[in-house]
Amino acid sequence: MSATLDLTTPASRPRPSAPASPALAQRSLLGLSREELGEALASVGVPQKQLRMRVGQLWHWLYVRGVSDFSQMANVSRDLRQTLSQHFEIRRPEIVEEQISVDGTRKWLFRFPARGAGRPVEIETVYIPEEGRGTLCVSSQVGCTLTCTFCHTGTQRLVRNLEPSEIVGQIITARERLGDFPAADTPAGAIVPSEGRLVSNVVMMGMGEPLYNYDNVKRALAVASDGDGLSLSRRRITLSTSGVVPMIPKTGEEMGVMLAISLHAVTDELRDVLVPINKKYPLEELMAACRSYPGLSNARRITFEYVMLKGVNDSLADARELVRLLKGIPAKINLIPFNPWPGTAYECSDWDQIERFADLVNDAGYASPIRTPRGRDIFAACGQLKSESERMKKGDRLALEAAVAV
Ligand code: SF4
């Protein structure tokens, strides 16, 4: 079987939308807390006694109805709509490219305007439709400071953290493109869950280490989980970390979201190579932080991500050690067949070996699904995200085709 990337098919559909990356002239209202939204309205003259009502109206238009223009806010007076549009924006990121995999996975390349003296930045966001759920994989940083050696994003230097408006903007724009707001149509032929919300789950597993952008991620997820707006249950939001141990307790206490650990190795010696932050926060500290994660229970398990690398971490001895390591932690283990990218030195484990590994872990009582590779033909699978300009800069677009041929 081989999957090849055809950049001329509907898999690659340039989508011009917002004007190309103008300097940020107006403050975005997306991603503000209710309190900040109230302060923003007060700053343009909305009377104090109207603030609560106006915040409620705007919140509804922004997050329940998903409007992208102040003019669509029918129950807001014309004068106020005009004032709002003079001072603020609710613009979506520019969609530079939308790619659709043969399996229905969608990947968007989003561009956000320059901030200050910086340049416009690009990130990727991925939608994975499955039976009964639609998961959006959201980025938290442009590039990454960490250099996990199996991860393509890790080869792109950190440009900057994403703002709450830019994190929330990914969710809203994906929902908009999928027709997941009232009065919006789902594109013909789109593969989406047959019932329920089209974006039912969010995973902070895209580009970047979310706990290195803690405040902005926390603020964005507070907006995403607000019950009168985007209304994503915190149990359907998962934050994945490479193991920033000091921030893990705080994440549970303050965000209350589900936790995933990018584990990938069961000895410090190997994890120091695969996930170099391990040198700073070794396995013993990481496991201790997991054991005491606030709210941990059999109903709220930690997911441990484990990428299967041929001859590196996929032996049955590794599987046994994994079971020993996680003893006593309510856990799920996601086994991820390695998704190759241009220039990587790693290969995916043989399928038989992945199954033997999974059987051993399952027999020990851990649910350990083998994650079916999704979106490989559009380079959207786990660990493959990277901004397009970075790919083009490195001239590895052609190598990309070779890498996804399996
Ligand atoms: S796995 Fe996550 S933390 Fe590690 S380099 Fe990739 S994006 Fe960064």
Automatic annotation (TrEMBL):
Cofactor(s) needed for function: [4Fe-4S] cluster
Cofactor details (free text): Binds 1 [4Fe-4S] cluster. The cluster is coordinated with 3 cysteines and an exchangeable S-adenosyl-L-methionine.
Cellular location(s): Cytoplasm
Catalytic residues identified in the record: 124 (proton acceptor), 382 (s-methylcysteine intermediate)
Database matches in PROSITE patterns: RADICAL_SAM (PS51918)
HAMAP family: RNA_methyltr_RlmN (MF_01849)
Family membership noted in the UniProt record: Belongs to the radical SAM superfamily. RlmN family.
Name of this chain's protein: Dual-specificity RNA methyltransferase RlmN
Originating species: Aureimonas populi
Lineage, uppermost ranks: Bacteria, Pseudomonadati, Pseudomonadota, Alphaproteobacteria, Hyphomicrobiales
